[in-house]
Fold this protein.
Amino acid sequence: MRWRWMVPIFLAGSSLGAQTASGPEIMLDVNGQSDAVVSRGWPLLIRALLISADGQPVSIAVKGGTWTQALSLTVSTSGGAQKWPVQLVQPAASAVSLSNLDTAEAVWLAAPSDSAAIPEGVYSVSVTLDTSSSAASGAWTGSVAGSAAVTIQSEPSSLSTEDEASKYLAFAAYARLKGDSAGVGSALDTLIAHQPTVLEAYREKADLLAASGDYAGALALYEDTISRYLASHPGPTEPLGPLTRPVSAMAMKVAQQQSPGDATVTNVAPGRTDTVFAPDSIVSAYGAGLATSNAVATGSPASALAGTSVTITDSGGAAAPALLFSVSPTQVNYAAPASLKLGAATVTITSGDGSAHTGSVTIADVQPAVFTLNSAGLIAGSIVRVTAGGQVSESVYAVDAGNNVVALPVDVSKDQVYLVLYATGIRRAAQSEVKVSIGGTDGAVAYAGPQGFYTGLDQVNVQLPASLAGRGDVVVALSVRGGQANPAHVSIK
């Protein structure tokens, strides 16, 4: 069963239910834990993370100052209020906007030497945001609080693996907030040497490389982190956003670092970084000097845009032109010809100024790739409802010009609800070879094949099991013949 929508509807956020009044929530942690155990002499980081309670936009701003002026920190024990030697880190912006994708945080720090002076004991830490009398015009007005517990102790003579990881991650976070890159690297390197399975250390080391301008090194380490995670979690049920979000950004940074005279080009399926794609699929090429200007095909893809063209020479020596969707100096999006033979191939992109850029690729029978709405891996697709009488509804989700979600209430326990994924590189597989799991639960694939309107675009319709109701943010994992597509996620209420 295929529902072919003329224009793909991007799913942005999520709710299978009615919306309520918007407002912030505070999630509080100490050294990354809501119920923390911290040794004296370790750095102390108290973080208040602000999120939108329902995913709708919320503005936090105060009159005549920064939004953190509306925050108050309280530390107490059974004996009453306590005074800790902590300092609030200056916020990057005077006002913040929260949404289903945007959050804000405030952090209080205590240096290792200062935390050593805190008496041992169990403490309650709470943070209150109160803009009742100070909210700027048009900003949220009200009061909300969050709390966490923390135990302060002397450092044991022997640390557990969990406590050791907490220690060095805290030292790395403290050094980062103090602008000490060498201290960050030293703490992470020590943790990786002691515990090579702590993936957060690899991800933070990749962040450090990216901040220093080593984008190629960061990209390699981000990919290594994802590979390590998937090797130890073959059926992930939680979103991989923190791991997958930086990959596409780093790939673009690497391309932008190439000089205009660099004649190399990287060709990948959307959302992926391996230089493999399938015949009759959509491909993105990254490089420098690929086009003399930006151009987008109107209607059907074109054989040339702004003077740029793409030719692919396959393993049989046949050279075939590709059709172009869009071009820019650093990126070209095109449709690989259906006639390509499998195996090693060469992509040649000729710019309007006559310069040629080449890249080696592998043509595979299938190379599944899922289109996502953003770098966080939010699925780009739609949801379709089929009533008990067999009537197919309009798409449940849509996004308006302001990127706000428009949703209709859906009861997945009564109606048949299908997630429509937009993908590429799967059409040469049989439907029985296409598998989709949502939050670790397998869904029944009702259709898998060409979308039927856009060149190279494939579509997968998978029924959402009723057991997913209320699960929230979950991983959507598409696999074809056992090969995994790029991770994506969707939120379900």
Notes: The two ends are 25 Å apart (CA to CA). The chain has four domains: 24-155, 160-234, 265-363, 369-492. Residues 160-234 form a domain with the Serine Threonine Protein Phosphatase 5, Tetratricopeptide repeat fold (CATH 1.25.40.10).
